[in-house]
């Protein structure tokens, strides 16, 4: 069931990209790719000037304004269920975040950040018009 839902969501995003409702910026991967994620809980203002809140993430500066769809990695390496959808609004101070090898998701609770730890996930970057 999870794979069917994931396939439907992925097909929907690809269809929206094809119709022009959702599109990829130049030099931004369209297909999902593996990346490490971490979590943070501190800070008040993001790199784009908005307030920190649940549903945002820090990533490579060129990705600010994009939306990151995070998917679990199945034991066999396939794309799994959707873990979350995050607006990229911050850049973070870590080199891995700045060079695009890690995405840092905002979780307002320090204990939950620690529980989140480091995870390998698939991420798909999209840019929604309007």
What this model shows, in words?
The chain is of the alpha+beta class. It is 22% helix and 36% strand. The chain has a single domain, classed as RlpA-like domain (Barwin-like endoglucanases), CATH 2.40.40.10. It has helices spanning 2-19, 95-98, 110-116, and strands at residues 22-23, 33-40, 56-58, 67-73, 79-90, 102-106, 119-128. The termini are far apart.
The share of residues in helices is 10-25%
Unreliable stretches (pLDDT < 50, length at least 5) are 14-24
CATH architecture classification name: Beta Barrel
In total, the number of strands is 7
* Rg result: 14 Å
Oligomer description = single chain
Strand adjacency order, main sheet: 2-6-3-5-4-7
Sheet of most strands: 6 strands, mixed, barrel
Report the portion of residues in β strands: 35-45%
Short note summarizing the structure:
This protein has 130 residues and is an alpha+beta fold.
Please outline the helices and strands.
Blueprint lengths: L1 H18 L2 E2 L9 E8 L15 E3 L8 E7 L5 E12 L4 H4 L3 E5 L3 H7 L2 E10 L2
Parallel strand pairs: 2-6, 3-5
Antiparallel strand pairs: 1-7, 2-7, 3-6, 4-5, 4-7
Can you tag this structure with a few keywords?
single chain; 130 residues; alpha+beta; Barwin-like endoglucanases; 22% helix
């Amino acid at each position: 069931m999870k794979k069917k839902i994931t396939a439907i969501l992925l097909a929907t995003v690809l269809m929206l990209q094809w119709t022009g409702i959702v599109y990829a910026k130049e030099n931004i991967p369209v297909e999902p790719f593996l990346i490490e994620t971490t979590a943070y809980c501190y800070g008040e203002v993001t790199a784009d000037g908005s307030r920190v809140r649940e549903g945002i993430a820090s990533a490579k500066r060129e990705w600010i304004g994009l939306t990151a769809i995070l998917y679990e990695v199945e034991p066999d390496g396939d794309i799994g269920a959707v873990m979350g959808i995050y607006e990229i609004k911050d850049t973070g101070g870590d080199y891995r975040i700045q060079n695009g090898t890690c995405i840092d998701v905002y979780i307002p609770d320090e204990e939950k950040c620690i529980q989140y730890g480091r995870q390998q996930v698939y991420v798909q970057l999209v840019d929604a018009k309007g």
